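G., the chain you wanted modeled:
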Amino acid sequence: MRIAIVLGSLRKAGTETQFVRLAKELQDHGNDVHLVVLRENEENSSPLDASGVTTHILGITDGIFGLAGLGKSLTFIRNLRSLKPEIVIAALPNTTTYALTLTQLFLPRAIRIAAIRGVNLQRNPLILRAYSHTLRHAHKVICNAPHLRVQSIEKFELEPDSVVVIPNGVDIPIKPIRTAWPPKSCVTVANFLPYKGHADLIQALTLVDDPVELVFCGTGGIQVELENLAVKLGVRDQVKFVNNADVDLELRKADFMVHPSTTEGLSNAILEGLAYGLPVIACDIPGNATLVKDGTNGILVEVSSPQSLGNAINTLTSNRNDFLAQAIAAGERAKNYSWEICLLEYLKIFRIFKKDEIGADDSRTPN
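Predicted structure as tokens:
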């Protein structure tokens, strides 16, 4: 089966990481997969490794809805018609609207699949309306968490039968449970954006009884402001910033994870932490609560609360038997989200469309 996966860029972020990996998994499973990337990667940032998958980079620089984007649309359309994919998958609002609208117009026989990773969107009303229209006319909408499915159906007025849940996939590494006590190192994997909660965590360090090293794996955004905050609060020597990190290495070295983000779909970072047997402290929001069972494989805390984060770190690092039990439970939880399971769910959907030949006539109304 020929499949085109359309991404805005190859930056190292959760959605992009998931779909590059999905492309590789589908390719390894015998499909002819092409990555279509709308924008060049930002300067001073290393792109995701898409080796092994044919990649087409359009090089749009001024936004896909600007004049440059319109000019590059001809390139996108030519690529699409040349590839003749049976299935086109697009992720994130602007990319989905752009790619699936052009697919519907110029390759109407292709199956159009939209991937939703969040519904709290700050968008131009016209673009948001176009996005909603695109979702309603997609053959299938895939959310990565149950709460997103419910929210998407309501917000975008989607037919329930057209929306399914396929959680993110994660590798399950072999990592021996740490026996050293007490835990001294925690890790946060998130680019430096305000809603990711780094500032709350830095403030929480002032409330922790036994000092721990905090390793931030991320790039860009408000890093300078965060460094200044750590200096101001007197904890700069406890905070390590790792840009373009080897995330696997940092997870392997860490004792536990803290994920203070205030909004999530289904967090790749939390999944990866659990897979490495790390108990996870995270804000009590629907996506996080899907993965972290409070007191079992981590601790859920109040949103945007340094006090709650500090208390949770103190609780997690105060009892060795509880900590080890949560570390074991973390690894077990991650097994429900292996790439093998994720891939089978995508293939199941593809086979249904292949069997029904739903793409043969686009006069249908969406399911």
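The first strand starts at residue 2 and ends at 7.

Shout if anything looks off.
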